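Continuing the series of single-chain predictions for the mutant panel. This is the parent chain; the variants come on the following pages.
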Amino acid sequence: MKVSTFKRGLKLPTRKHATEGKPVELAPLPKQVVIPVNQHFGAPNKALVNVGDQVVRGQKIADGAGPGPMTVPVHASICGAVKKIEPWLQSNNTAGPCIVIEAGEDQTATMFMPPLDPYTCTRAEALERIRDAGITGMGGAGFPAHVKLNPPPGKAVDLVIADGAECEPYLTTDEAVITEKPHLLITGLAGIMRINGVKRAIIGMEDNKANLVPLLEREIRINDFAKDMDITVQLCRTRYPQGGEKMLIKALAQREVPSGGLPMDAGCIVQNVGTLVAIAEAFVLGKPLIDRDLTVSGGACKLPKNIRAPIGTLIADLPPEFLDINYDHLRKIIFGGPMMGNAVATVAVPIQKNTSGIILMTKEETVIDAEGDCIRCGRCIQNCSCRLSPVLINIALDSEDMDEALRTGLMDCIECGSCSFVCPARIKLVQRFRVGKQRLRALKALSQRPASAAPGRA
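Parent structure:
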């Protein structure tokens, strides 16, 4: 099989050996879950329940605070009583409103939706089901799936890509999903192909998962819904950040996403394999997105494994016989992968829909060096997968020249961390770019505000 790739990027140590090939283990029921009201990219939600309410697994507990498509509901992941609705530290290091549910003794009740056949229902019904199930992209960004699957008029899509690259070190969640749920993966993929009238799809994986190709090809042959569809499996070189949408489109389709554009501008829809499984479960089982498969690994984790836990679970609440953490050697906690994830200060942070992993790192696994001065070596340019010049963006931000930062590609940065990784001066480039983007968005919002009326005389 031909192995594709993109230009630049990094060859990183994968560090997947601790959980590679391990099955997903069901986490014990936590004593409580702390469910963030907002777990998506878009407009904010509001709570639909009050303190003291009894809720059951699958019940909608938060939804959009106003009209508009950029909202996704949130559902109870366990049965129990709402004990608090209060701000709680989340994986983005901000305190956001959360619904705290204390687990009840009876966990048998569910409030799932009736099954819906994605191959006979209307397109509008299919998109409504995906939204009602609360499905967001599970690869990291948390973009509402129903919005991504509904490109605006004029955006012709002819290719769907299932993203199974999983290029981040340590993480093996996608591998476990592909191994254990190939039927749901292909069912979900075929379903979104039908929704968008697309005849061709590619399942992209890095070549360190070549052993999974026969499993997927067999499922494609026997799956009733995929028989008449052109679905292929293609390997990419194990290279970071191969799992990024732009990199995967370039490697598999030889297409370029334009500056400031989205995959649909290149005629593609890209969905993580976990998202496709969640979509299939929403149709076949009527199940909302209330559980999350993730990898828990790192040198300070005595029992690294792939787990399935209710959304809102705090790993601090999991018993040591299931997940034993060596707190004496724990130096860094990362939600997500070590390259693009966020470092947090405590293990009492809830698992969210987009939590692909929790990495518990020792001193030997971390780099805590002070920043030095840029020596203009150009390594950040040589390794940027988006072919940007991070050094120039950084100079513009240091000079507070936001127009120049925008011109040199700040908003095209995918925050993969390659530039920070190779920087000999240990400059925190990605963190600076994230702050720069926030400043640009704030300036844009300020410029769009109506001008205040000048104060007049009485």
